[in-house]
């Protein structure tokens, strides 16, 4: 991969030696510091991941992904301040990496969520994590819940195992080594444009915030604010992709919200200060998780030759998770409305 | 049936000739007037029902049941003012009659509700009332929705037809003629106790209201007030009767609310004046309907040899209706909290 091998183009200057003007952090310096910090964190997590057993590797993998997302976010938001080609390429590669690493975790948490939901739906049904071990109870439906749990566990465990192999393969690939080298460059010498330090960071961050605001404004928040609006299950038995297309704008807001949070971090704002943004992000994480879980239940129901009782349980489970989607939207709009002036966020 | 043949016991006096004291309606007189009105309405609806074709019979049947419920409610609430044996017996027979007449209507509206829900869940799925006529569309799930609609239509139409026959049979039976004769007695001469006119009606109505208040207080209203609490689907895949047992206290409140409304009517309060009680009643009607529809979907899923796609659609439908149950509880608690002083109700 060319990322690491590429020499920073002419015009880029390391910012480290510059002196801040009038006590305000110079734009380029703040950005470079943030990128260096995150790159260092990435390399630390990578080292820790390499030294961990499979059981211990989950935490460093999370840290690695968090740092990758933050680097990628800063490269995107403050793109005009950076060497564009170099950072675009690193961003693409970081997206590939965090996507690859995220999959294993996503399947694991989807399994937990679905088995947890089955447990709630069927008290004598599958316990968390060992659905197959509980003998079928009285009544066809509880048998169905147990069988549905076993089927989901089988399918998601297989998907997770495959994702684990793919992640291991990725971490050993030359493509990954190129990414790591690129991040290592970032840790020592950020490829800022020559005129970067003259620009303040705020307009770029404000741009992200404006895009976030527009995306939120396009959401059906009034409808989401009416509890039990039954929107999330609308057309839930229609064409297979119907619920997913309805979820997409919410997923988009989730990504923009994260980008906005990272831009705030770059500006030196602690994200913990803005409880509203945190709550909104948590609601959209839940939205994303429930949406994925509902799709997994629907997809398990398309397994050939399953018993009707299993299919019935998967239908109930699908609808349950679609209602979780709706609940997450309700939670999001409630959090979002709470403090529209966002007085807390500006430091 | 002995109702009609029974001669009012000694101690009963017709109240018609009594003079109201100080402009206030005498208790016995108000009660007798209400019972006479409802008995007259019962007989009018019965006559209309006999003269109607099958298509036109639905409206008089509703009126017949409404009058039967009101008579029964008044006999129950103001029991101490009436000849107890006579009114208990008429009440039992009225309950049998309205139960028998209600079934056909319940199956019809349950079918409408479920086909409507399937239509919402599957845009290319079954249209209202003719699920079987739409050809199966793309994707297993839409086929499933169409098949689920056809199955439910078959089962509920059969149940409805049977209920219709049973109702016709009941209306031609000597048991029914005895009830009608009992109501005819009521229309001319209410079997009040000799000392009834001395008692005010208010304490009896207050007693019903107190029972209603206690029953509402025992409901999990705080939980119901949290949108998307997922309570209604709790154990939804467990033992078959799990959701029904959770619904019972709400059904009980529905009946007490109705009894309370009828007691208000007897006291001369127009029920339309209390929007809060009307709204609460509507929410609990919706609760009852959704609960029955959810049970019908679950029961259809236990039909032997159905396709997995059909069972899946029925699972989604069941969960959808259980969420309607939850939505109705949310609506009830919102209405109930709205005006706790009930200033509007006292005339």
From TrEMBL, chains A, B:
Family matches, as Pfam families: CHAD
Domain named CHAD: residues: 24-341
Alphabetized InterPro entries for the sequence: CHAD_dom, CHAD_dom_sf
Entry-linked PROSITE patterns: CHAD
Classification via Gene3D superfamilies: CHAD domain
SMART domains, A to Z: CHAD (SM00880)
Transmembrane regions listed in the UniProt entry: none
Protein name: CHAD domain-containing protein
Organism: Streptomyces solicavernae
């Amino acid at each position: 991969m060319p990322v690491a091998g590429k020499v920073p183009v002419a015009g880029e200057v390391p910012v480290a030696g510059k002196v801040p003007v009038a006590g305000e952090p110079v734009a380029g310096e703040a950005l470079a510091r943030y990128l260096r910090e995150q790159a260092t964190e990435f390399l630390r997590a990578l080292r820790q991941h390499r030294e961990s057993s499979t059981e211990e590797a989950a935490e460093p993998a999370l840290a690695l992904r968090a740092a990758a997302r933050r680097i990628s976010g800063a490269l995107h938001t403050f793109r005009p301040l950076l060497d564009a080609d170099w950072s675009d390429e690193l961003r693409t590669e970081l997206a590939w990496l965090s996507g690859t690493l995220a999959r294993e975790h996503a399947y694991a948490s989807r399994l937990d969520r679905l088995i947890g939901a089955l447990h709630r739906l069927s008290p004598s049904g599958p316990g968390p994590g060992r659905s197959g071990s509980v003998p079928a109870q009285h009544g066809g439906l509880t048998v169905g819940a147990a069988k549905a749990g076993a089927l989901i566990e089988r399918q998601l465990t297989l998907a997770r195992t495959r994702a684990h192999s793919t992640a291991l393969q990725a971490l050993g690939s030359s493509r990954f080594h190129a990414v790591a080298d690129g991040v290592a460059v970032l840790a020592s010498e950020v490829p800022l444009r020559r005129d970067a330090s003259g620009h303040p960071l705020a307009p770029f961050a404000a741009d992200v915030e404006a895009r976030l605001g527009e995306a939120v404004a396009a959401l059906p928040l009034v409808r989401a604010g009416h509890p039990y609006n039954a929107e999330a299950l609308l057309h839930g038995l229609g064409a297979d992709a119907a619920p997913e297309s309805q979820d997409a704008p919410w997923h988009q807001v989730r990504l923009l919200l994260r980008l906005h949070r990272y831009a705030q971090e770059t500006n030196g704002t602690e994200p913990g200060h803005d409880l509203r943004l945190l709550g909104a992000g948590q609601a959209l994480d839940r939205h994303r998780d429930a949406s994925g879980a509902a799709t997994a239940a629907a997809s398990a129901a398309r397994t050939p030759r399953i018993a009707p009782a299993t299919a019935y349980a998967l239908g109930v489970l699908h609808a349950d998770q679609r209602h979780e989607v709706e609940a997450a939207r309700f939670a999001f709009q409630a959090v979002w409305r709470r403090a529209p002036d966002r007085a807390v966020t500006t430091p």
